[in-house]
Amino acid sequence: MALLIQYTENGAGIKLTLDKQRTTIGRDAGNDICLDDELASKEHAAIEIIASEKEIKFLIQDLNSTNHTFVNDSPVDLHKLKDGDLIRIGMSDFRFISQEPDSLDETAQLYKTWIPGVFYTGKKEKKATKKSSKK
């Protein structure tokens, strides 16, 4: 399973699951991900999942948009996404996360700092269990 994290003005992230073979992104309400962004085209980009026996690839394709689709600050027509890629469509920023099944086993924990309103996250570590052997 893969995700797009859409970053908002205040820095918070909105998780968008990429669970369809083709996910469209744009300003039109008919898109899977609809952007309230006047710099985004009606049908701006699409992310396709290509599965083979060896791997699963995620491709982003610009759909002849007016203002282009950017991956890691470079304009792209067709690009194979890798974990951590930063996608920009209009004024909207997304981070592509290619989750491995094992990463779902870990839970992030929120920690408060001494600065009011500032928090950070960390991963809970699984506690090792000690097995006793009986003879």
Structure description:
This protein has 135 residues and is mainly β. The chain contains no helices and 13 strands. It has strands spanning 2-7, 13-18, 22-26, 33-34, 45-51, 56-62, 69-71, 74-76, 78-80, 86-89, 92-98, 108-112, 119-123. A six-stranded antiparallel beta sheet has the order 2-1-11-10-7-8, with no helix packed on it. A hairpin with a 6-residue loop joins strand 12 (108-112) and strand 13.
Give a nutshell description of this structure.
This protein is an all-beta fold. The chain has strands at 2-7, 13-18, 22-26, 33-34, 45-51, 56-62, 69-71, 74-76, 78-80, 86-89, 92-98, 108-112, 119-123. The strands form 3 sheets. It has a 6-stranded antiparallel beta sheet with strand order 2-1-11-10-7-8, with no helix packed on it.
* Largest pleated sheet: 6 strands, antiparallel
What count of helical segments does DSSP give? 0
Strand order of the largest sheet: 2-1-11-10-7-8
* Global structural class: mainly beta
β-strand amount: over 45%
What's the end-to-end separation, in Å? 44 Å
Helix content bin: under 10%
Oligomer: single chain
Rough shape? globular
Radius of gyration: 19 Å
Would you report the number of β strands?
13
Poorly predicted runs are none
Order of helices and strands: EEEEEEEEEEEEE
Provide tags for this entry:
six-stranded antiparallel sheet; five-stranded mixed sheet; mainly beta; globular; 135 residues; single chain
Topology:
Layout: E1 2-7, E2 13-18, E3 22-26, E4 33-34, E5 45-51, E6 56-62, E7 69-71, E8 74-76, E9 78-80, E10 86-89, E11 92-98, E12 108-112, E13 119-123
Parallel strand pairs: 3-4
Antiparallel strand pairs: 1-2, 1-11, 3-5, 5-6, 6-9, 7-8, 7-10, 10-11, 12-13
